[in-house]
Amino acid sequence: GETIKSKLTGALKFFSYENIPENICSNKYVNLKDYYSYDCNDALINKYEDLNDEVNTNIINRINIYNELNNYVDTYYYVISTPSIYNFKINKYNIDLIKILKDNLKGDYNLSTFEFENYDEYSNYFYKTDHHWNHIGSYKGYKDIITMINKKEQFIEPTREVTFNDIYFYGSAARVSQIFDYKEIFKAYEFEFPEMKIINNRNLNSYG
Questions:
Q1: Could you say which DSSP state residue 90 is in?
Q2: Torsion on CA atoms 157, 199, 68, 78, rounded to nearest 10
Q3: Do residues 70 and 108 make contact, with C-beta atoms less than 8 angstroms apart?
Q4: Distance CA 208, CA 197 (A)
Q5: DSSP-based three-state secondary structure for 31
Q6: Closest CA relative to residue 25, chosen from 1, 49, 50
Q7: Partners of residue 113 on adjacent β-strands
Q8: So what's the pLDDT on residue 40?
Q9: pTM for the whole thing?
Q10: What contacts 190, CB < 8 A, 6 or more positions away?
Q11: Model pLDDT for residues 38-47, shown as the tens digit of each residue
């Protein structure tokens, strides 16, 4: 049948069969400059990073900036795990960002996390060709953040899931790699929002 190599339209210079995983569609594995893909799942995933001295220093430097804020304002950290710190081949975090944060954050702060433990869990919450949440992931993130800020707040529940059968979603990974064979039908939750006030920088604003 047709192989992923024959589907590549603009990324041939990035193509490589190196480091093919043995247990995940190895005959259809494609390795790009910034992404890798399990072809049986039709998804392009950001490559993971290893924790080296430079990466660790960058993380610590940013945490130190946060630490300056913790004693002056109420701080809420919502940490979203991404494939850049997770290796799906062995189902393990290459960079334990949560531990680094807990070990180095100082002062008063609130911390909540969005984590996954395998590819199936990740793919339920994220787009196939983008590092952003899909509608399921974004709704979970909304509930997590509301719970962290105000545990008594009632969630706005979606009224239905809408499927746009004639609209295909291509994310940034598809655009960068030029692999447009990977796509998905766009879906979204629909809500009935109550009357609300939108405050932006202490000024009353309109929604949207």
A1: T
A2: 10
A3: yes
A4: 12
A5: strand
A6: 1
A7: 79
A8: 57
A9: 0.79
A10: 158, 159, 160, 161, 162
A11: 545 678 888 7
Name 71's Cβ contacts closer than 8 Å, sequence gap at least 6: 107, 108
Alpha carbon distance 168, 78 (integer Å): 30
- Burial of 157-191, coded b for 16+ CB within 10 Å and e otherwise, reads eeeeeeeeeeeebbbebbebbebeebebebeebee
User: What's phi and psi for 143, nearest 5 deg?
Assistant: -70, -40
Could you give the count of Cα atoms lying within 13 Å of 22 in the half-sphere of its Cβ?
1
Q: Is 162 in contact with 190 (CB distance < 8 Å)?
A: yes
- Over the stretch 83-136, which tens digit does the pLDDT of each residue have? 889 888 788 898 999 999 999 999 889 999 999 988 889 999 999 989 899 999
| Phi then psi dihedrals of residue 57, to 5 deg | -65, -40
- The DSSP annotation for 136-199 comes to HHHHHHHHHHHHHH-TTPPPPPPSEEEEEEEEEE--HHHHHHT-TT--EEEEEEE--PPP--EE
* Residue 6 exposed, middle or buried by CB count within 10 Å (0-12, 13-18, 19+): exposed
135: its two tokens:
């509608």
The per-residue DSSP string of 41-79 comes to GTEEEEPP----HHHHHHHHHHHHHHHHHHTTS--EEEE
Question: Among residues 115, 125, 55, which one has the least CA distance to residue 86?
Answer: 115
Query: Longest C-alpha distance within the chain, in Å?
Result: 61
121 Cα distance to chain centroid: 12
Q: Could you give the C-alpha distances from 121 to 53, 83, 114, 117, 136, in angstroms and in order?
A: 30, 12, 11, 7, 11
